[in-house]
TrEMBL record:
Signal peptide: none
Name of the protein in its database record: Pentatricopeptide repeat-containing protein
UniProt source species: Sesamum radiatum (Black benniseed)
InterPro entries associated with the record: PPR-containing_protein, PPR_rpt, TPR-like_helical_dom_sf
Keywords: Repeat
Residue spans of the PPR repeats: 182-216, 264-298, 334-368
Domain of life: Eukaryota
Length: 389
């Protein structure tokens, strides 16, 4: 993924009116919504708190917990809990503690986990985002992905419909104002959606990331293409849905090219496979020659995918012509591909086409097998193309 500017946590162009206002767009206005933190803000302004012992003063709680984290003293949290110090503990307090300890991701994660397991407080979206940023920044990707998988399924207030899910992308971006972050988190967000089967959400996030001026890694894009190819619209849905799915895949490729990030053979092959699977062979050919035009040589998988696509439409002659055309572009056709095509043409009673391909195979240095000759002879005999002497 492209590197971000050194001084700014994110390009300001993505923060449109309404996103950085007092009420973020697409967010709940409940306390769980992402807010700007004041790290040293006291829990209560009541002066009577100052007469309490240090461990019972709620205003000292954040400092006490942070000190215990530096000393690796997790048992002290349980002592504070028994003293009632956490009775007014909020999500903002949790965020302040995480931010103060972001240089030690293991300590931050330990306290985050302890809060979830021992307090009645449920971490909000902001807490999740800060914890994820801390883990990704420290290269602890495994633990970050675990929390990110939970976050993508976190609901907002209300009935819990899909439309009321937290906007995870914007939550993560807004949280970058408070803590260190790494662009890898955007790659991970796309993959998290895919792992949860939320392919549409992953595609929408991909487009937002690209519009913001970043392009995910080619590995992530290939994962997204693969996810789009596996989308199930159901047997009774019309062709337009399938074409829409393919359009999404095509957008992924063109977005890469527009941002001067070259798609690789896997990206093109995934798109070709999708078109062939739906019988859209003309579109598959267009992608193939765009691939060749970009200097990416089709591999054995590309050839097999196209040949199978034509075969499913009973168009073996078109498959033959494509293979011959590819040889003129310098594409190496495997011996197995020649064998498969020759046998398929013989079974379709096209012996002369099979004979022509067999000759081409010999010119390319392959030795035809005995099975090929037998199938070719049988096909000639079935067509009564046998000369008697």
């Amino acid at each position: 993924m492209k590197s971000a500017p050194h001084l700014l946590p994110f390009p300001w162009g993505i923060f449109r009116p309404g996103v950085l206002g007092s009420t973020p767009r697409n967010y709940s206005t409940s306390p769980s919504a992402v807010q700007t933190l004041t790290l040293n803000q006291p829990i209560s302004n009541n002066p009577l708190y100052n007469f309490l012992p240090e461990t019972q003063n709620a205003n000292n709680l954040v400092a006490l917990v942070c000190s215990s984290l530096k000393l690796k003293d997790g048992a002290f949290w349980e002592y504070l809990r028994q003293q009632g110090s956490f009775c007014r503990f909020t999500g903002d307090d949790l965020s302040r503690i995480l931010l103060r300890c972001q240089s030690d991701s293991y300590a931050a994660l330990a306290f985050f986990t302890w809060v979830r397991n021992n307090l009645a407080l449920k971490p909000n979206a902001q807490n999740f985002c800060i914890m994820i940023h801390i883990l990704v920044w420290s290269k602890n990707y495994k633990e970050a992905m675990k929390i990110l998988l939970e976050l993508v399924q976190l609901k907002g207030t209300g009935t819990g419909n899909v439309s009321e899910r937290f906007n995870v992308y914007e939550s993560l971006i807004l949280s970058t104002n408070d803590c260190n972050w790494d662009l890898a988190v955007l790659d991970m967000l796309i993959k998290a959606y895919l792992r949860k089967g939320m392919v549409k959400e992953s595609f929408q996030t991909f487009r937002k990331i690209v519009r913001a001026g970043f392009v995910p890694s080619i590995v992530t894009i290939n994962c997204l293409l693969n996810g789009l190819s596996r989308m199930d619209f159901g047997g009774n849905v019309g062709r337009y849905c399938k074409e829409g799915r393919l359009k999404m895949r095509y957008i992924c490729i063109t977005s890469c090219l527009e941002e001067r990030v070259e798609a690789d053979a896997v990206s093109y092959n995934t798109l070709i496979y999708g078109y062939c699977k739906e019988g859209m062979m003309q579109e598959a050919r267009s992608v193939l020659f765009a691939m060749i035009g970009r200097g990416i040589a089709p591999d054995n998988f590309t050839c097999w995918t196209l040949v199978k696509g034509y075969q499913n439409l009973d168009r073996m002659i078109s498959a033959l012509n494509l293979v011959l055309e590819l040889t003129r572009f310098g594409v190496v056709i495997s011996r197995d591909m020649y064998c498969y095509l020759i046998l398929a043409l013989c079974k379709e009673n096209r012996p002369f086409a099979a004979k022509s391909l067999l000759e081409q195979m010999s010119l390319n240095g392959y030795i035809p097998s005995e099975e090929m000759y037998n199938e070719l002879i049988d096909s000639l005999c079935r067509g009564k193309f046998v000369m008697r002497h």
